[in-house]
Design brief:
The protein has 388 residues and is of the alpha/beta class. The protein has 15 helices and 15 strands. Helix 5 runs parallel beside helix 6 and helix 13 packs parallel to helix 15. The longest helix has 21 residues. The structure holds pyridoxal-5'-phosphate. Pyridoxal-5'-phosphate (PLP) binds next to helix 5.
């Protein structure tokens, strides 16, 4: 009897179904925006990371088309071989200028930026302290680095400090890694206190601004700017694919850090350079972030309005603490979350159920955009009220 070496896959899928953890893709048609066409229906979109509404902006589209016409569709090689263009350097300068850092380096995604940066700055003899709710890319970068990884309780400074005191001395370098806006909860890391402890214990700090760039801080530079920590020693990661409406990731920091990464980060060295279209769109987006603060102001008015409505008008729902465009309503089980997600969809609202293993408690996750209007929020509230 031959045994099928792949038979475990179907069994594994069965287990996923039984736990209500099964997920599949949903097809969106047309351009992204506050209203999207999903499976033939028009829905109000609370599922997007396009916080400033730039992914469908005519200026980004025009920049991508112009770059494609001038430079072609592919960059044809890695940056160190044949893939580098002046456009990449312009984008890196624009990121460094927005972040107020000496330099920046663009990766093909935020995931690759995290993996590449973490795995190249620490190794076997080193320690990583990691918030338990960190994004998958931080966690997998930590694993790939070969360093000892210790997780601390989410945003808990007492636990964080205890773990530093108990472990720091046994290792050569220490890297602290944290999301700045936590992607599935919407709360912020206590950055100033983490920085103070990093300094006290001689640690590096890498902060992931994926959901904060373009959104947080007076100039949209992120949580680092929001907390007034711009001039402090930091490694800043981010993505071009959320508020910036394009695709790609970056590391921003000191000139020597960036120079080191260009020579040591495998996920930058051994992958094809960002396409001309993605690069030009991201560059156009950063210019808009710099020149149109009213977009960010509008986003924040929307966030504060919706938060207030949820607290005042929906006492039956549990809103998780948030200081960002990400607002989560907790539900008891994965099955409940899926059911509410489906009911919302019937009511014309696209807001996804987030379940284990992504998070440990199930929820509906609502992402606010600058381009939502009052009517969108009213429809959301009506739908939620009719459910519970
Ligand atoms: C989305 C996200 C990433 C990954 O960015 P991509 O550019 O989409 O690969 C990394 N970190 C955090 C915290 C994120 O939310």
């Amino acid at each position: 009897m031959l045994i099928d070496p792949y038979s475990w896959i179907d069994k594994s899928l069965e287990t996923i179904h039984k736990a209500d953890w099964y997920r599949s893709v949903q097809t969106i048609q047309g351009r992204p925006g506050a209203i999207v066409q999903l499976e033939g229906r028009s829905l109000i979109n609370f599922a997007s990371n396009d916080y400033l509404g730039l992914a469908g902006d005519a200026r980004l589209i025009q920049a991508a088309i112009a770059a494609t016409k001038e430079f072609g569709t592919g960059s044809t090689g890695s940056r160190l071989l044949s893939g580098h263009r002046e456009l990449h350097r312009q984008l890196e300068s624009a990121i460094a200028s927005l972040k107020n850092t000496e330099d920046a380096l663009v990766f093909s995604s935020g995931y690759l930026a995290n993996i590449g940066a973490i795995a190249s700055i620490v190794g076997k003899r080193d320690l990583i302290l990691s918030d338990q709710y960190n994004h998958s890319s931080l966690k997998n970068g930590a694993l790939l680095s070969g360093a000892t990884v210790i997780e601390y309780t989410h945003c808990n400074l007492a636990d964080f400090k205890t773990k530093l005191q108990q472990n720091r001395q046994q290792y050569r370098r220490c890297l602290i890694i944290t999301d700045s806006v936590f992607s599935m909860d919407g709360d912020l890391c206590p950055l100033p206190s983490i920085l103070d402890l990093a300094e006290e214990f001689n640690c590096m700090l890498l902060v992931d601004e994926a959901h904060a760039t373009g959104v947080m801080g007076k100039n949209g530079a992120g949580v680092v700017e929001h907390f007034g920590c711009t001039q402090r020693p930091l490694i800043q990661i981010g993505t071009l694919s959320k508020a910036l409406g394009s695709l790609g990731g970056y590391v921003a920091g000191s000139a020597s850090l960036i120079d080191f990464l260009r020579n040591r980060a495998p996920s930058w060295i051994y992958t094809t350079a960002l396409s001309p279209a993605d690069t030009a769109a991201a560059l156009a987006a950063i210019n808009i972030v710099k020149q149109e603060p009213e977009r960010r102001n509008h986003l924040w008015r929307n966030i504060n309005n919706l938060k207030q409505f949820l607290i005042e008008e929906l006492p039956n729902w549990e809103l998780l603490p948030s200081e960002s465009p990400i607002l989560c309503l907790r539900l008891p089980t994965p099955a409940d979350a899926v059911k509410v997600g489906q009911q919302l969809k019937i009511a014309g609202i696209f807001a996804p159920a987030i379940r284990p293993p992504t998070v440990n408690s199930s929820r509906i996750r609502i992402s606010v955009m600058a381009t939502h209007n009052k009517g969108d929020f009213e429809q959301l509230l009506e739908a939620l009220k009719s459910i519970k």
